[in-house]
């Protein structure tokens, strides 16, 4: 297998194996639930991990898991266990660390920061609002498709990601425990090849959109979900690579378009376009945009603006 | 569009050059965006525009626009005026 990630433990295994001083970081929405299942107190996430801590157990979304990976980077002896509270980011399975610093994304790769183990606790995601669940599906889809199409992907990696994509096509865009495994596979897979313009847009626009449109609650997964179909339409129009690779790996193009259409949020897209225009130069300079499967040219901004995704019929 | 014009447009787009910045004797160290991501982007663009898939050795060895012209010339592309 080309795609590998940390071992998966059960909650019981975690409770048995995490001995000594354990620090728990948890996103607020799950803290109450954790208190009845984990025997350790929950720390404030902003606190530095004490020198005496031997384990850091982090329960949350991709942002919090990446912060925990950064904490482990600073403390190499610290053991790290990641429990994703929602699928999508796959951060628990990837050596990539994405941190927000003063409105910019600081992205680095450090295999030593990977968690020692992952615990899947799918029930935590059941209470996540449906629109957030759907966006999480878009994040996973973006990793799988952009990794598959990446100019840096090997044939072996493409083969494995094509199997992930086939399984994604069978899932609803809502809660299903399989999303956790597939998100981990998609993220660990793309970490070997890189992502593309969907992520270049998401990384660049997240901070200005949050600042300019706080009522819309923009976040990474929503941006991926919103821009996935438009970017893939532009990729397809600019190069035969999209259709060629899908055919080569036996992927059903029309079914994929139907899934991307189901993820697309036209209202969010329209609201993001003015900010895309403001930030277009930064999008072009983003490292992810520059490893897109197709060369992203400066005149693509007009194509985004003239792409009536919400009106276009699925092929 | 002749090959010189195609290459100029490609390099301007890949490295986000401002009008007037492109030169056929441009070297990698003169272009801020000609980093490892720029190399990937250049390779993708060369495949799209000229249909040549750069080998990793070819891509890694490119230090100037002249090197790009040398590689493509061996594949039959003419960059004479």
Explain what this protein looks like in three dimensions.
The complex is a heterodimer of chains A (315) and B (81). Chain A has 315 residues and is an alpha/beta fold. Chain A folds into 2 domains: 8-125, Rossmann fold (3-Layer(aba) Sandwich), CATH 3.40.50.1970; 130-311, Dehydroquinate synthase-like, alpha domain. Helices cover 50% and strands 11% of the residues of chain A. Chain A is built from 13 helices and 8 strands. In chain A, the strands form 2 sheets. A 6-stranded parallel sheet of chain A has the order 1-8-5-4-2-3. Chain A has a two-stranded antiparallel sheet with strand order 6-7. In chain A, helix 5 packs antiparallel against helix 6. The model of chain A has no long low-confidence stretch (mean pLDDT 94). Chain B has 81 residues and is mainly α. Chain B has 4 helices and no strands. Chain B has helices at 3-14, 36-50, 56-61, 65-74. In chain B, helix 1 (3-14) runs antiparallel to helix 2 (36-50). The radius of gyration of chain B is 11 Å and the shape is globular. The two termini of chain B are 12 Å apart. The model of chain B has no long low-confidence stretch (mean pLDDT 95). Chains A and B meet through helix 11 of A and helix 1 and helix 2 of B.
List the helices and strands and how they pair.
The complex is a heterodimer of chains A (315) and B (81).
Chain A: E1 8-9, H1 11-17, E2 22-26, H2 31-37, E3 42-43, E4 55-60, H3 62-74, E5 79-84, E6 96-101, E7 104-109, E8 117-119, H4 130-149, H5 155-168, H6 178-190, H7 197-212, H8 220-238, H9 241-248, H10 253-263, H11 266-285, H12 287-290, H13 300-305
Parallel strand pairs in A: 1-8, 2-3, 2-4, 4-5, 5-8
Antiparallel strand pairs in A: 6-7
Helix pairs in contact in A: 4-5, 4-6, 4-8, 5-6, 7-8, 7-11, 8-10
Chain B: H1 3-14, H2 36-50, H3 56-61, H4 65-74
Helix pairs in contact in B: 1-2
């Amino acid at each position: 297998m080309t795609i590998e990630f940390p071992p998966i433990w059960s909650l019981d295994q975690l409770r048995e194996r995490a001995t000594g001083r354990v620090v728990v970081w948890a996103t607020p929405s799950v803290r109450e639930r954790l208190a009845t299942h984990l025997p350790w107190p929950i720390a404030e996430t902003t606190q530095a991990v004490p020198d005496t801590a031997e384990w850091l157990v982090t329960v949350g979304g991709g942002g919090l898991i990446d912060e925990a990976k950064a904490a482990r980077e600073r403390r190499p002896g610290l053991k790290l266990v990641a429990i994703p509270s929602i699928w999508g980011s796959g951060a628990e399975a990837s050596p990539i660390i994405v941190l927000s610093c003063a409105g910019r994304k600081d992205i680095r790769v450090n295999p030593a920061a990977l968690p020692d183990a992952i615990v899947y606790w799918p029930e935590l995601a059941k209470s996540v609002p449906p629109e957030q669940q759907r966006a999480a599906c878009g994040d996973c889809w973006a990793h799988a498709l952009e990794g598959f199409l990446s100019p840096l992907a090997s044939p072996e990696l493409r083969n494995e990601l094509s199997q992930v994509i086939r399984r994604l096509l069978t899932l609803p865009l809502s809660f299903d425990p399989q999303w956790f495994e597939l998100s981990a596979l998609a993220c660990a897979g793309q970490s070997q090849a890189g992502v593309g313009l969907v992520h270049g847009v998401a990384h660049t626009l997240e901070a200005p959109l949050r600042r300019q449109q706080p009522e819309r609650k923009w976040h990474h997964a929503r941006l991926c979900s919103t821009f996935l179909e438009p970017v893939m339409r532009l990729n397809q129009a600019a190069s035969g690579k999209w259709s060629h690779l899908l055919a080569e790996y036996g992927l059903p193009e029309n079914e994929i378009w139907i899934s991307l259409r189901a993820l697309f949020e036209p209202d969010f897209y329209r609201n993001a376009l003015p900010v895309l225009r403001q930030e277009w130069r930064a999008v072009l300079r983003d490292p992810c945009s520059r490893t897109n499967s197709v060369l992203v040219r400066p005149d693509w901004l007009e194509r985004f603006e003239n792409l009536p995704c919400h009106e276009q019929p699925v092929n | 569009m002749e090959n010189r014009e195609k290459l100029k447009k490609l390099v301007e787009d890949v490295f986000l050059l401002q009008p007037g910045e492109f030169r056929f004797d441009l070297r990698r160290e003169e272009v801020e965006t000609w980093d490892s991501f720029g190399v990937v982007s250049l390779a993708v663009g060369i495949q799209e525009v000229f249909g040549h898939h750069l080998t990793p050795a070819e891509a890694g060895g490119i230090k100037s626009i002249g090197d790009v012209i040398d590689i493509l010339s061996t594949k039959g592309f003419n960059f004479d005026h």
